[in-house]
Task: inverse folding
C-alpha cells in the first residue's frame, strides 16, 4: 500500500508516517521502483503507535516498545507503567474530590474536613 493510502487508512498525514520512518518507529518496505510500501503488518504497528501516543508516550518510548532488541527497553517500559499508575491514582483522587465537592455543604471547602484531605 502506498504511503498516501496508508495515511488515509490511519487518519494521519503522510508526513507523520515519514517522520515515524525517520525515527525508526515504523519503517515500511520499498517497491522495486523505490516507493514506500505499507503492509498489513506495518499498518498494525502504526495503530499501536497511535494508541501509545494517545496516552502520552514519546516516539522514543514507542520505538522501544516495538523493537525487542532496543537497549534499555525493560526499564523504559517499567517507568511508563509506573507513570500510568501515578496518573491513574491522581485521576482517582480527583474524581473522589469532585464527587464529594459536588454535594459538599460547607460554604468554604477549606473548612470541610473531607475537602481538606485533597489539599494535602
Ligand atoms: Zn467538603
Result:
Amino acid at each position: 500500500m502506498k504511503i498516501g493510502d496508508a495515511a488515509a487508512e490511519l487518519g494521519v498525514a503522510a508526513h507523520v508516517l515519514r517522520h515515524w520512518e525517520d525515527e525508526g518507529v515504523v519503517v515500511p518496505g520499498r517497491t522495486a521502483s523505490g516507493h514506500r510500501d505499507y503492509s498489513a503488518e506495518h499498518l498494525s504497528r502504526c495503530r499501536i503507535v497511535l494508541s501509545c501516543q494517545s496516552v502520552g508516550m514519546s516516539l522514543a518510548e514507542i520505538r522501544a516498545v516495538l523493537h525487542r532488541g532496543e537497549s534499555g527497553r525493560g526499564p523504559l517500559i517499567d517507568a511508563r507503567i509506573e507513570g500510568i499508575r501515578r496518573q491513574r491514582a491522581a485521576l482517582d483522587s480527583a474524581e473522589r474530590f469532585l464527587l464529594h465537592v459536588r454535594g459538599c455543604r460547607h460554604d468554604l471547602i477549606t473548612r470541610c474536613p473531607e475537602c481538606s484531605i485533597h489539599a494535602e
